[in-house]
Specification:
Blueprint (H helix, E strand, L loop, with lengths): L4 H62 L5 H13 L7 E5 L20 E3 L26 E4 L1
Antiparallel strand pairs: 1-2, 1-3
Helix pairs in contact: 1-2
Length: 150
């Protein structure tokens, strides 16, 4: 017994609809996978930049500490020039602290411009004038009376 033409039409329509759903679902999965992977790449790059900035700050602070606080501007200028080769527009600032690291950092007054030492263009933001609240020193041996912003 032969099938009516109308039944073949419905079967064909059902197959086309199923194929379109599969294609749409596959495209949606591909798009979600792409966004997830791109988010991972951006997050990974930002973490690497943050780690690099922390390294610049710590190594500069150690060099200033080893020099006994002499020629801070020269050290900062040299470090900034070295970093500028890899990161265009990088800027450094040394923000002196008026108290020890054990004192909570909730309300530290901004320092005057005479004590602030900077290097670099600071085109993205003004140079910091105080240590930001909540800033911590992870190791008491690293506690010095100067914080570096990179």
């Amino acid at each position: 017994m032969a099938r009516p033409a109308q039944a073949d039409h419905f079967v064909h329509l059902h197959r086309v609809r199923a194929a379109l759903l599969l294609v749409g679902f596959s495209l949606l999965c591909g798009l979600l996978l792409f966004y997830n992977f791109s988010s991972y790449l951006v997050h990974s790059r930002l973490r690497a930049l943050s780690d690099q900035a922390k390294f610049f700050a710590q190594s500069t602070a150690l060099e200033i500490q080893r020099s006994g606080g002499r020629d801070v501007a020269g050290i900062l200028a040299r470090r900034q020039a070295n970093a500028a080769g890899q990161y265009q527009g990088v800027s450094f600032a040394v923000v002196p602290m008026d108290s020890s690291c054990a004192v909570p950092r909730q309300s530290r007054p901004a320092i005057d411009d005479a004590r602030l030492v900077t290097a670099g263009p600071w085109t993205h933001l003004p140079a910091p004038r105080s240590v930001r609240p909540g800033s911590t020193v992870p190791d008491s041996r690293a506690c010095s009376r100067t914080r570096i912003a990179a």
